[in-house]
Amino acid sequence: MSIRITRRGALFGASGLAFAAAACSSGPRRPEPEPQTGPFRHGVASGEPDQSSVVLWTAITDDAGGEYVFQVAADESFETIVFEDREERTYVTSNAISTFKVIATGLEPATTYFYRMLFNGISSPVGRTRTLPVGAVARFNMAVCSCSNYPAGYFNAYRELANTPDLDLVLHLGDYLYEYSADGYASEEAERLDRVVDPRHELISYGDYARRHALYKTDPDLQAAHAAAPWLMMWDDHEVANDAWTTGAENHNEGEGVYEERVYNAMLAYHDWNPTREPEDQIGTARIAEIGDLATLVVTESRHVARDQPMDFSTFPIADDADPDDPANRQAIADWRANEIGRDDREMLGAAQIAQIADAFGAAAGKPWRLLGGQVIMGRVETPDMIEALPGWLKFIVSKSDDLAWGYIQRSQFDIPFNLDAWDGYVAERERLYDAVREAGSDMIAFAGDSHNFWTNQLMDDDGHRIGYEFGTTSITSPSPFERVPAPGVSFSRLIEDKNPDVIRHNDRDKGFIRVTLTPEAMEADFVTVSTIRRRGYTAGSDSRWRVTRGSDGLEIDAI
Question: Cβ distance 436 to 460 under 8 Å?
Fold first, then answer.
């Protein structure tokens, strides 16, 4: 039996919006694949597995039509086919690109399968997928990633992810693509790297978002990562627009049309171009994956369901260069944090999602692990005093060259939150989430993306009780905010670690992903790094490795 989710035909046609695969040259680490030609130029993907089914995805570039067949087999040679879905399609436009998606059902739990599409006798690349387990699980391997900006550099981290053996699941926590124009964010090297985005303008319409997804899917490293394992995906803000919330976004204005229409366009394209199960409203709420008796994974939606507008420093109550030793200024900051940032009605997830998390974690209280996949950093992070820590020459250069960075440096004297778009801008709801987890008789391991930095944090509530630990993944290519300030000899990471007792490890330099291994006895997280994103050849390394176990007083963490 098969369940068809969507068939978007003739997405691009006679208007000339055809796509070729991204150019690629051999690197010393791994032989690079040739660019895809023929009808399957965008690779294959699988996603959102459960114990008996998985979503399969591909796209076809063709103007003649014909018969296609999705096949799933128990072996890579396709001698034992366990699922087949067959249909015919007639195209009405030239050079059309159509996406295809089907749920392959009737599969066995904890089983590796191989899949492909045949179109008029031509085979797509072969992908590997795997169903979720039931019952006892000795080991489960995941990769956690986020923030892939096409013009910023090559997706070497995706290539290294694809090289990970025995991968059961890829957890992608958002910013799969970026909405900016060709001269926008992180595009300084795009021309030299031959990674200029298409379309060249900012994304607004359905066609805009679909074209950008299509461009990303021509990248050979991303194709390899999708073909290596099933993905469980959740968007962050840039799949629509920067710093998005339920009714708007920082990177949206009235001249760009009705915001709700932009969200609809972006979400429709997201589902068309990814191996997702589609909720009726294209957004839905949290996704839950049951990993046998080993773990329950809840992945939250944090942008379009409940989020209030992120705060920024436009409401900062005193001048950036005010005297930090003046008691009146200190009181103004304290009042601002309590009455603005700390407002009880500010939401990111909403009550319904928090209840969903509590129910899922309560039901999983007997399992070794309860995992929460979010988008933004949950741990408490205060900004270190940059005025005190930075050398005078650097402060002088920044004050004369970068107003935004200089304002941040000046405000850092006042013990302010590091990122108001993260959970530090939604502190009351964070406490409600912690309360719900604790009342469910649970603890948790949280994963986050968004920040373009690696993090290891302990999650502490306002009363000093540990709720769990957090591992934040760096980006695939998107630049760290600290790259804005060239500061030889200055370790921003060390400043953050020294300032914040809840931050165990911070890395503001490297690109990569987190490799996670779950067993009944321990959870291990390896911060995998790549040496460069400016050329195809790279070497892989490890920033740090962490092991979480359960001791007499709850979860314990050690560097390994």
Answer: no
Task: Using alpha carbons, list the distances in angstroms from residue 181 to 33, 169, 544.
Answer: 28, 32, 35
- What residues contact 332, with CB distance under 8 A and at least 6 apart? 317, 318
Binning pLDDT at 50, 70 and 90, where does residue 284 land?
A: confident
The CA distance from 350 to 429, in Å, is 8
CATH code, 134-304+370-377+444-484+493-559: 3.60.21.70
pTM: 0.94
For 97-121, give one letter per residue: b (16+ CB within 10 A) or e. bbbbbbbbeebeebeebbbbbbbee
DSSP string over 324-353: TT-HHHHHHHHHHIIIIIT-TT--SS-HHH
Residues 6+ apart with CB under 8 A from 101: 4, 5, 6, 7, 55, 56, 57, 272, 275
Question: How far, in Å, CA of 457 to CA of 550, rounded?
Answer: 17
Helix (H) or strand (E) holding 403: helix 403-411
Name residue, tokens 């001791």. Answer: 551
C-alpha–C-alpha distance, residues 298 and 234, integer Å? 11
Residue closest to 436 by CA, chosen among 377, 352, 378: 352
| AA identity, residue 113 | Y
The class that CATH gives domain 31-131 is mainly beta
Cβ pair 361, 444 in contact under 8 A:
yes
Task: Give the amino acid at 477.
Answer: T
E-strand ranges in 221-286 read 231-233, 244-245, 248-249
pLDDT, tens digit, 9 for 90 and up, residues 383-418: 999 999 999 998 999 898 888 889 989 999 998 999
Beta strands in 13-95 (DSSP E): 44-47, 54-62, 66-73, 81-89
Token pair, residue 374, equals 């979010």
3-class state of residue 382 by DSSP: strand
Q: 295-299 and 369-373 as β-strands: parallel, antiparallel, unpaired?
A: parallel
DSSP secondary structure of 116-158: EEEETTEEPPPEEEEPPP-S--S-EEEEEE----GGG---HHH
Instruction: Please tell me whether residue 219 adopts helix, strand or coil conformation.
Output: coil
In the chain, what are the domain boundaries? 31-131, 134-304+370-377+444-484+493-559
